[in-house]
Write a structure and sequence with these properties.
single chain, four-stranded antiparallel beta sheet, 54% strand, seven-stranded mixed beta sheet
């Protein structure tokens, strides 16, 4: 399984970015795709998740109303739209996938850096 994350960059506070995660190497119909982030000196944290069917999404409280996770099954790609970015959103963002019945994420992408300037 390969996960290729992209879309990070430098943006001013209040701006937007869209992250993409292209998945390959297996079928993903029974999985959950998640986005995580790790800021300098901090623990990695869950940001958002979506089932491959798209009927269930979840978010960490700090991004509710600002970030939106979505997916395009035809492209095996999951997106994270980041709006109204804040300096505290600065982090390396990782995508990951797990079986829908599992608690742990099994496969991880390489990360994409999001830097929000004040």
């Amino acid at each position: 399984v390969q996960l290729q994350a992209s879309g990070g960059g430098l943006v001013q506070a209040g701006g937007s970015l869209r992250l993409s995660c292209a998945a390959s190497g297996r079928t993903f119909s029974s999985t959950v795709m998640g986005w995580f982030r790790q800021a300098p000196g901090k623990e990695r944290e869950f940001v958002a998740g979506i089932t491959w069917s798209g009927d269930t999404t979840s978010y960490v409280g700090s991004v509710l109303g600002r970030f939106t996770i979505s997916r395009d099954n035809a492209k095996n790609t999951v997106y994270l739209q980041l709006n109204r970015l804040r300096p505290e959103d600065t982090a390396v963002y990782y995508c990951a996938v797990r079986e829908i019945s599992a608690h742990e994420y099994t496969y991880w992408g390489q990360g994409t850096l999001v830097t929000v300037s004040s």
